[in-house]
């Protein structure tokens, strides 16, 4: 019999956790589907999805089964060996996408770190050491390692840590002329999010991604799509590049891939992937049997016509109600995004108040997100039931009404 847990409260965070985050005042302790319960037993509706991570909601039976079954077999074996769940998951990802090869890691940042290193290694091997420059978009987000914050176009995340990684240029998103002006024979890669996530749920334009692909081909650069947030069904296709019909050379995936269990994946064509030879890159926990078993179960559920169509249908249900609420209170100037990655852009009178909306929603037992100070972000379970959508948005309207009165 296990020993009883030591009681903890939100105040413990301020005593023992490094203060890189400022979490909400309540502590969730249990979840089921799109509902969450806190320490007091209060029930909340979750429209945040763990920041687009809980792709199947909380405690999905197929994920519990996959994890429990693998936990009774093999937890960790190291990359001196391979394992069955990793091989099955890699095969399914390859069969479902443009990619020929997969590198497994533990997070989106690690998946992007691998992608950027691979792009530079490929360019060095094929073209020589002068071809190492990377172009990314302003206000992008690619992770929190030194390399990934340097590639991302947000100085607030990269300043204050000493010299930055050299050879990185930032251009405005959706500005093809700016990209054309920046790319050169020294460019080894162009890195883009098909939908910019952290900066406000801003989709790329069709012509922009097509132009980026053309420019990369013209200059011998690789096109990398960061689909950490948009991947694994989030936008109504398995990966968002499929909506555009524009194929990258490298794609990164994480968040929803594990449905809540940490995993990252870097997908690449064989032409590129072969430049990561034995010893050039690695990960102690990458390809962990537990993570891969869970991710395989996620993929089996998500990558079906019914679930992907359901994501697209649920988008319309959300959008119609959100636009109605926005119009009633003068709240939103735009509701954008795709599938169940939705950004509600605050109107001029509400600018900078996304944090207040977050707090007011919590008072109404609703979990939402921000994407910067001017955008309320929703990224619920891909399987969220219509009743939970309706009740969640009823609570959201009550939250907005309370702010409007104040």
From TrEMBL:
Cofactor binding summary note: Binds 1 pyridoxal phosphate per subunit.
Q: In which pathway does it act?
A: Amino-acid biosynthesis; L-arginine biosynthesis; N(2)-acetyl-L-ornithine from L-glutamate: step 4/4
Record's InterPro entries? Ac/SucOrn_transaminase_bac, AcOrn/SuccOrn_fam, Aminotrans_3, Aminotrans_3_PPA_site, Class-III_PLP-dep_AT, PyrdxlP-dep_Trfase, PyrdxlP-dep_Trfase_major, PyrdxlP-dep_Trfase_small
What reaction gets catalysed by this protein? N(2)-acetyl-L-ornithine + 2-oxoglutarate = N-acetyl-L-glutamate 5-semialdehyde + L-glutamate
Coiled-coil annotation: which residues?
A: none
Stated family: Belongs to the class-III pyridoxal-phosphate-dependent aminotransferase family. ArgD subfamily.
Name used for this protein in its record: Acetylornithine aminotransferase
Q: Which organism is it from?
A: Stutzerimonas kirkiae
Q: What is the lineage of its organism?
A: Bacteria, Pseudomonadati, Pseudomonadota, Gammaproteobacteria, Pseudomonadales
Q: Which gene encodes it?
A: argD
């Amino acid at each position: 019999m296990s020993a009883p847990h030591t009681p903890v409260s939100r105040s413990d965070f301020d005593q023992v956790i490094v203060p890189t985050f400022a979490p909400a005042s309540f502590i969730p302790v249990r979840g089921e589907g799109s509902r969450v319960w806190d320490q007091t037993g209060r029930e909340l509706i979750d429209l945040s999805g763990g920041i687009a991570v809980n792709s199947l909601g909380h405690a999905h039976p197929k994920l519990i089964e996959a994890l429990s079954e693998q936990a009774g077999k093999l937890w960790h074996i190291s990359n001196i060996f391979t394992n069955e769940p990793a091989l099955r998951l890699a095969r399914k990802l390859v069969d479902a996408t443009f990619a020929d090869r997969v590198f497994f890691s533990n997070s989106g940042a690690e998946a992007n770190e691998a992608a950027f290193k691979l792009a530079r290694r490929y360019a060095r091997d094929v073209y020589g050491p002068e071809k190492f420059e990377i172009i990314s978009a302003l206000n992008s987000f690619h992770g929190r390692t030194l390399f990934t914050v340097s590639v991302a176009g947000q100085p607030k995340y990269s300043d204050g840590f000493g010299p930055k990684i050299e050879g990185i240029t930032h251009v405005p998103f959706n500005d093809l002329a700016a990209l054309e002006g920046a790319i050169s024979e020294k460019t080894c890669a162009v890195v883009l999010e098909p939908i910019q996530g952290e900066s406000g749920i801003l989709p790329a334009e069709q012509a922009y991604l097509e132009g980026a692909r053309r420019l990369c081909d013209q200059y011998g650069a690789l096109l990398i799509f960061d689909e950490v947030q948009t991947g694994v069904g989030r936008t109504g296709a398995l990966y968002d590049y499929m909506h555009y019909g524009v194929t990258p050379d490298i794609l990164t995936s994480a968040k929803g891939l594990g449905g809540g269990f940490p995993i990252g994946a870097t997908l690449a064509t064989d032409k590129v992937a072969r430049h990561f030879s034995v010893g050039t890159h690695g990960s102690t926990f990458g390809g962990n049997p537990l993570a891969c078993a869970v991710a395989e179960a996620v993929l089996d559920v998500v990558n079906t016509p019914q679930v992907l169509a359901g994501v697209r249908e649920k988008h319309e249900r959300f959008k119609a109600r959100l636009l109605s609420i926005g119009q009633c209170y003068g709240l939103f100037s735009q509701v954008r995004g795709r599938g169940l990655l939705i950004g509600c852009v605050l109107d001029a009178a509400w600018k900078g108040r996304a944090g207040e909306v977050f707090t007011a929603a919590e008072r109404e037992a609703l979990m939402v997100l921000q994407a910067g100070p001017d955008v309320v972000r929703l990224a619920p379970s891909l399987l969220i039931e219509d009743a939970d959508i309706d009740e969640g948005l009823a609570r959201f309207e009550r939250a907005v009404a309370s702010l409007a009165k104040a």
